[in-house]
Amino acid sequence: MIDSIYTGVTGVQSHQTRLNVISNNVANINTIGFKSGRASFADVMSRTLDAGRPARGPVASTNPRQSGLGVGVSSIDTMQTQGALQTTESETDLAIQGEGFFILGTAGERVYTRDGSFSLDLHGRLYDPATGLVVQGTAAAANGVFGAELQDIVVPLDRESRAEATTMVAISGNLDASAKADGAGVWDTTTRLGLPARVVSEPAPGFPLDLSGLEPAGLQVKLDDGDQARSATLNIPGRVYAERADLVETLNAQVSANGTLRNRVFFTTDDSGALVLRSVPGGSQVTLSVEDAATGDSVAGRLGFASGAVARGASLAATDGLNALANIGAALTDGDVLRFSGVKPTGEAFDGRFVFEAGQSDTVQDLLTAVENVYGGVRADIDPDTGRLTLTDTASGDRVTGFDLRFSLLDTGPKSGIFGNEPPYEYSTTARIYDAQGESHTLTLRFVRSVVSNEWNWTASVDGITPDQGHSGKAVFNADGTLRSFASADGSRLSFTPAKGAPPIQLTLDAAATGQLGGLTQFVSASTASVREQDGRASGSLVGVSVESDGSIVGLFSNGSTENLARVAMAAFANPGGMRQIGSNMFVQTQSSGRPVVGAAENGIQGSIVSGALEMSNVDLATEFTNMVVTQRGFQASARSITTSDELLNEVVNLKR
After folding, report:
1. How far apart are the first and last CA of the chain?
2. Mean of the pLDDT values across residues 51-80?
């Protein structure tokens, strides 16, 4: 009888232990990284009253007779299940999604936790403020590669990001195909046709041409087109020019960069290889000259120009070839068509075509004859004073007035083009680039619509100065608006030497996506071409950190760059439930848990790290309250068995009176 009391006691004790576990779970419902416990029961060894007997003939076997001695707590398990994540406002708060533990402490004594409420101390160490233990991980080398040795994570708060010189500029966006698409290549009754003023180098300079000793400023160009006198000084870069095309492109880039004479004069070469400066407007009223600016070097002489010599344009003669016109921007070739159309004073429309053929139909008179034949009854001429096309009635001899006439070019062969009344469309964009010292410079890209269809001329300047190389070129587009080619005239990368002692900047202008969308395009849409990306940067100081999902601590710098500083290490155990709790949300390894496998999140360790979040307790209150009720009933039932046994013992005692 006494055994039943002790059996009931085991039930009371076991349920009390289970209630302790449940109470601990409920108490830690809001403990960061807490893992709930679970108490499991097992019966105590039974007392055997009869071992049972085997079967004998017709008599069957008998079962053993055993009397249990109660219940005991077989295990208290830590449930290493995932807790919910709660976001915070601190980048150094870390949570683990999946398996793994943070490592705290030193090489001699390490503990493990799921509580990632970390902070940075005044030395930049990532640590647990509750215990003072430092988070362990690996440091990153200067190239961003992480080491293998486990050590205290230290964020260098005084770290600076070095400056990087720009080496690549990515250009994308649109150049408007309709913006003055005909304005740069259309003649009408107001157009002044004439011969350009031409200044020719005599003798022609030889190449390579060494101009490395030039002063920064040198060649002054003056133009009077009959309406306005203009003057500009071209700052020719002092260097060696290997080819004549390189020099011509540099001179034209200077004209474009200066602005005053842009689209009014340009440099070219003639059939003999001589250097030619010519005007865009033509006619006898146009004068053009070059001379040395106020420097000690005869720049004009070194280029082969007679300083101060004035060249004058000329009026047209009927026998002049069309390609001699100042209005021809790129020579007409066989098969090119000048289409003309208009309206007579009577309101009658007319439309005609003139086909250019060298040696057959290539003079001004040939074009005038084509107009006369289509219009009918008129003589076409060029006014020697104004350069404008006139029509005279052959019957009356009177000048025809009130008619409209327009010419446009249909280019059928090698690239040709004509200048109209309006200057070619221009579009400019600027961007910041950097030298090796972190000094910023302004890169200006100017795109000018060529008189040749689907072609744009571009020039580049840095801080208003023409770069040493790669400063000009052409952007050529396919008929569908995609880019065919984008290259500098000299085939070089853009090279610019900063003024404050930094090494030269060598950068590539990349318009990308040749033949495809995504780079520079030419569609009928607003011009949006710009520098979308450049890889240079100024120096910067550390302004913040972020933690990636693999535990990488990335430094955020004031110049917009990022660098790997360190990486949080994680440990995984074969049996995490076998770890021993030591308080403060910490665990230590045991023989049951096995040795830790140390690695990086998402790389050897299956878990990932979430920055700006903490893992909450995995306690389920509904489950705990249910277990509490069941435990309470078990406790009450065990206690009731004790009181019942006591009453029976009391009856036994009362048998003797």
Report:
1. 20
2. 83
Q: What is the pLDDT of residues 444-493, one digit of tens each?
A: 999 988 888 888 989 898 998 888 888 888 999 998 999 999 988 888 89
Per DSSP, 164 falls in state B
Name, in order, each residue with C-beta under 8 angstroms of 650's C-beta and a sequence gap of 6 or more.
Answer: none
Query: What are the extents of the domains in the chain?
Result: 2-49+65-77+632-653, 85-161+541-615, 168-179+425-534, 183-418
Domain at 168-179+425-534: CATH code: 2.60.98.20
- pTM (2 d.p.): 0.67
Per-residue pLDDT, averaged over 583-594, amounts to 92
Residue 182 has what pLDDT? 47
User: Do residues 34 and 23 make contact, with C-beta atoms less than 8 angstroms apart?
Assistant: no
Return the exposure string of 591-611: e unless at least 16 CB atoms fall within 10 Å of the residue's CB, then b.
eebeebebbbbbeebebbbbb
State phi, psi for 323 to the nearest 5 degrees: -70, -10
Q: CA-CA distance, 240 to 625, in Å (whole number)?
A: 90
| Cα distance between residue 35 and residue 76, in whole Å | 12
DSSP string, 530-561: EEEEE--B--EEEEEEEE-TTSEEEEEETTS-
Among candidates 425, 572, 625, which has minimal Cα distance to 114?
572
Long-range contacts, 483-488 (Cβ 8 Å, 24+): 483/511, 483/512, 483/513, 483/514, 483/515, 483/519, 483/520, 483/521, 483/522, 484/454, 484/514, 484/515, 485/514, 486/171, 486/511, 486/514, 486/520
The strand pair at 168-174 and 505-510 is best described as: parallel
Please compute the mean of the pLDDT values over residues 382-397 and round it to a whole number: 93
* 3 state SS of 243: coil
Beta strands in 450-515 (DSSP E): 455-462, 472-477, 483-488, 494-496, 505-510
Instruction: Let me know how many helices (H) and strands (E) the chain has, helices first.
Output: 5, 49
Strand pairing category for 287-292 and 310-312: antiparallel
pLDDT of residue 217: 59
Task: Measure the CA dihedral 571/575/580/586, to 10°.
Answer: 30
Would you report the helix, strand and coil content of the chain in percent, each value rounded to 5?
15, 40, 45
User: Over the chain, what is the mean pLDDT?
Assistant: 89
pLDDT of residue 453: 84
